[in-house]
Amino acid sequence: MTVGSLAVASRVSDSPGEVVQRTTEVPDSETHSRAIRVLIVDDDRETARALERTLLQMNTQVAVACSGPAALKAVEQGRFDVILSDIGMPDMDGFDLLHAIRRIDGQVPIVLLTGEPTVSTAARALEVGAFRYVTKPVEPKELNSVVEKAARLYRMAQVKQQAAQLLGQESPMGTDHDSLNRSFDRCLESLWVAFQPIVDWNGKRIFGFESLMRSRVAEFPHPGAVLDAAERLGRLDELGRTIRKLTASSIPSATNSPAFFVNLHVRDLLDPTLLSDDSPLAPFSHQIVLEVTERASLAEVPDLRQRIAQLREMGFRIAVDDLGAGYAGLTSFALLEPEFVKLDMSLIRDIEKSPTKRKVVKSMVNLSQDMGMLVVGEGVETIAERDVLVELGCDFLQGYLFAKPAVAFPEVTF
Ligand code: G
Ligand code: MN
Q1: Strands 60-65 and 20-23
Q2: How much distance in Å is there from the Cα of 165 to the middle of ligand 1?
Q3: What is the pLDDT of residues 354-409, one digit of tens each?
Q4: Which fold has domain 5-166?
Q5: Which of 92, 148, 159, 342 is 20 to 30 A from 282 (CA-CA)?
Q6: CA 413, CA 398: separation in Å to the nearest integer?
Q7: Is the pTM of this model over 0.85?
């Protein structure tokens, strides 16, 4: 089997290692938006052809590789906006290919396809940083939509990088994969967690603390930058485990057994160590509230209900974080049936000046309490905001007014 190079457009070859490229004829009016460059990787030529035919119906430029090594060669030589790869292939499977491509291009979205879907491969695909996991046969509509979304995301990543350069910000995302990995190693080694009190204002006591990850490495000046890098490097698991270990190590030194609120990334829900009995948080599970943000979709977590049920069985409680900031629907509520609800600070800001915000928050507080949930108002910065939230019946409050996140454990003057 020969490993072919990227053939010139419209040349057709049937040799298995060869990469073949075709371009759609695009009417003039559409040429302003550049064709999406897609690489299809599948050892089954029929499938590859079918995918190619579908994609050529949209504004794409398609190359086909019939093996992992041929695909790698193509990625080394050309630029792609999206890579669609089969998982089961003889020379190099889709996961190995994904890892190999990440060494060359840290950002290009990779969609993994499989004819034999299982929960564990789906979980693994997302854990290692695949953009999507799709089951074959793929409906043309779904294929087009996934490819379009992936290409758009890739362009956004590139534009963000350009913006950072323009603004003179040294973006670690612009650096190559290996040096980003090294910076991230340093970041993990020196990572620390800050704690911010969550108060019961009426009872004049600290109810608990939220643990918040903090970086000491200049390339990642804020937690968002750490998360972006972890996502890009496929190292979200390591990050989540580090945060949970650091949080757990502080818990024994707290007095009066407060609750501890720990933020989870959606991908943490796929990490088997979260559910394992010897995880660092497990001994304190009855004190722990796991926060799941409203900002991200939970659609990609297979078995979500079962995972959440298992966490509850272990003693953990669940909070929906950033309520009001995310998706319009109530899917996270329905799926998680949380014990706590955390209202996003955008709803809290200047609430005393906005009758609309007061009405919305009042309804949220009432509905949550009707469902047996406790409500935390986040990001409280002023006395006026505090007083309104107390009046509206918020159970707990958190924000700079009481204490900023700091080393274990900041105090509050009531
Ligand atoms: O998404 P999540 O709610 O977990 O984010 C909490 C973030 O909000 C933390 O980074 C924390 O530092 C920040 N934060 C906490 N209290 C306040 C506040 O009163 N005002 C503002 N602007 N940010 C806050
Ligand atoms: Mn939070």
Answers
A1: antiparallel
A2: 27
A3: 999 999 899 889 988 988 999 999 999 999 999 999 999 999 999 999 999 999 99
A4: Rossmann fold (3.40.50)
A5: 342
A6: 13
A7: no
